[in-house]
Amino acid sequence: MKVLVVGAGISGIRTAQLLEQAGIEVAVFEARDRVGGRLETINLPEGYVEAGGEWIDSDQQRAISLLTEFGLEPEGHEQFPGRVLYQGEEAVEDHVWPDAEADARAIHHEATELCHQISPEPWLQDHLADLDKRTLASWFDHLCISPRGRWWVEAVTRSDEGEDSSAVGLLGWLVGYKHYLERTSGEMSAFRFPGGAQSLVARMSETLQGDIFFDHILHSVEQNEESVQIWCKGEMAFGDRVVITLPPPVLRKIEFPFDFPDEKLKAWETIGSARAIKVTLRFKRRFWLDEKWQGRMLSNLPFQQIWDSGREGAACLSAYICGQAAVNIARQRDPVAGVLRAVSEVAPLAQEEFVEGWLHDWIHDPYSLGAFTSLTPGSVRDALPHLATPVGRIHFAGEYASSWQGFVEGALESAERVVEEVLESGR
Ligand SMILES: Cc1cc2nc3c(=O)[nH]c(=O)nc-3n(C[C@H](O)[C@H](O)[C@H](O)COP(=O)(O)OP(=O)(O)OC[C@H]3O[C@@H](n4cnc5c(N)ncnc54)[C@H](O)[C@@H]3O)c2cc1C
C-alpha cells in the first residue's frame, strides 16, 4: 500500500512516521519549503523564539511522550503569575480584583453546571441546540456584573480561544471547558519544546524513509475504486490512499471534482479559525528582570498579552494578540512600532533596549488562514460529527479533526486515529 500525506506539519509528519512503522510506503507533499507548519521557530544568533505553537500543557501526554522519544525533557517556565493591567490599575494574575474574581467564579460555576449536561456526542442532544447557536459573549454579558470582571473573563478566554468571545459558540466553548474540568492537573501552559517546536518536527521528519516534496501546493484530489490522485502545481501523484492534514480554511479551496458529501463541506464552512497573531520584539537584554518582572502581562492595551518568549540567550517579548484587535494590528503600516509603543507604556525601557521586531501573521498566512480551530456558533452540531470522517480513499487529520482542537496534542491524536483508519481499510 502507498499512502500520500499532504502537509508536513506535526500531524502530517507523525502520520507518515506511524505509517512507515507499520510497513506502509509514504510520500509527503508540502506547500512551504520547510516542515512544521504552524510550529515555526525563529532562530537568532543568541537563541530562538516561537512564531506559532509554543506551549504544552502538563496533561498532554502524546506531546510529552514524543519529546521523551527524542530524549528531550519538557522545559518548565516561571512566569506565572504575571501582571494584570486594566485601565491603569494593576493586579497579579492569580489574585485579581474582588469584583473580577466574583465574575470569573460565577462563569466557572455556571459552566460547570452546564458541562454536567453535555454527553460525549453533544450534537445528538437536541435540547442543547440553542446553546450551540448562542455566542459566548452574550452569555458572559448576561452573567458578569462589573465591567472590570467582564473584561477579565474576556481576556482569559480570549487567550485560550485565540478569539473574541463574540466569534465563539457557547456550546463549543463548553465542550472545551468540560475537557478542562476533566483534567486531573489544573496546570495550563506548563512547558515549552526544548530546542524549539519546529526542530522537533524536523527531527521527526529525519526518521522518514519516504520523500518529502516541498513547494508542492495541493489544489485538486480525485479518486476511483482503485486509487487516489492528487495534483500539486500541475504534477500528479498516485496512491492507494491520501491523508490530508490541511486546516479547514485551506481545505475549502481544494477541488474535489466528484460527488463530495455536503455535510463535510458545510462542516468546513462552519468551523472557525482563530484570528491570532504574534508580534515579537527583540531587545538587547532582559531589562524587565531588573524591574523584578518576569515579562508576562495581560492588559487592556492593544497588545492584550505579552510574555518573555526568548529561549537560551534571546531577550524577546512576544505579544499574542487575538480577535478583531489582531486584524486591526496586522493591517497597520508598522505593527511592530505600534506594539512597541504600547509595551513602552508599561515598560519604559523598552524603546531604549529595542533591537528589532517581527509580525507573525497567521490570519493571512496562505497555508493556515488562521491560527487554530475556534468553534463558531453552530459548530458543535454542523461541524464536529463530520470533521474526521473519511470520504472513500481520502482521510483527514490535523488538529481540527481531534478531541484536542487547537493543540499540538490534537494534531498528534489525529495522526494516531487516521493511521488506525488507514490500516483497517486494508488497501
Ligand atoms: C500563534 C499560535 C499559537 C499557538 N499556540 C499553541 C500552543 O501554545 N500550544 C499548542 O498545543 N498549540 C498551539 N498552537 C496550535 C498548533 O500550532 C497547531 O495545533 C499545530 O501545529 C497544528 O498542526 P497540524 O499538523 O494539524 O497543522 P499545520 O501545522 O498547519 O500543518 C499543515 C501543513 O499543511 C501545509 N499546507 C497548507 N496548505 C497546503 C496545500 N495546499 N498543499 C500542501 N500543503 C499545504 C502547511 O504549510 C502545513 O505545513 C498555536 C498556533 C498558533 C498559530
Q: How would you describe this structure to a colleague?
A:
The protein has 427 residues and is α+β, with helices and mostly antiparallel strands. Among the domains are: 167 residues, FAD/NAD(P)-binding domain (3-Layer(bba) Sandwich); 86 residues, Orthogonal Bundle (Guanine Nucleotide Dissociation Inhibitor, domain 1). The protein contains 15 helices and 23 strands. The strands form six sheets. A seven-stranded mixed beta sheet has the order 8-7-17-18-20-16-21, with helices on both faces. A five-stranded parallel beta sheet has the order 10-2-1-14-23, with helices on one face. Strands 3-4-19 form a three-stranded antiparallel beta sheet. A hairpin with a 4-residue loop joins strand 11 and strand 12. Helix 1 packs parallel to helix 15, helix 3 packs across helix 6 and helix 3 packs across helix 7. It is globular and about 65 Å long. The relative contact order is 0.19.
What topology emerges from the helices and strands here?
Elements lengths: L1 E5 L3 H12 L3 E5 L11 E4 L2 E4 L4 E2 L4 H9 L5 E2 L6 E4 L2 E4 L5 H18 L13 H5 L2 H8 L3 H15 L8 H12 L9 E2 L4 H10 L5 E2 L4 E6 L4 E5 L2 E5 L1 E4 L3 H4 L10 H9 L1 E2 L2 E8 L13 E3 L5 E4 L2 E2 L3 E7 L1 H8 L3 H12 L3 H4 E8 L11 E2 L4 H4 L11 E3 L11 H17 L3
The structure holds flavin-adenine dinucleotide.
Count of helical stretches? 15
- The CATH architecture assignment of the domain at 2-39 and 194-272 and 375-424 turns out to be 3-Layer(bba) Sandwich
Percentage of residues in helical conformation: 25-40%
Low-confidence stretches: none
Look at the structure and name the CATH superfamily of the domain at 2-39 and 194-272 and 375-424: FAD/NAD(P)-binding domain
* Sheet with the most strands, sense and barrel status: 7 strands, mixed
| Terminus-to-terminus distance | 6 Å
CATH hierarchy class name of the domain at 2-39 and 194-272 and 375-424: Alpha Beta
| Cofactors and ligands | flavin-adenine dinucleotide
Strands, total number: 23
Radius of gyration: 22 Å
Broad shape: globular
Strand sequence of the main sheet, in spatial order?
A: 8-7-17-18-20-16-21
Residue fraction in strands = 15-25%
Class computed from helices, strands and strand pairing: alpha+beta
The CATH topology of the domain at 2-39 and 194-272 and 375-424 comes to FAD/NAD(P)-binding domain
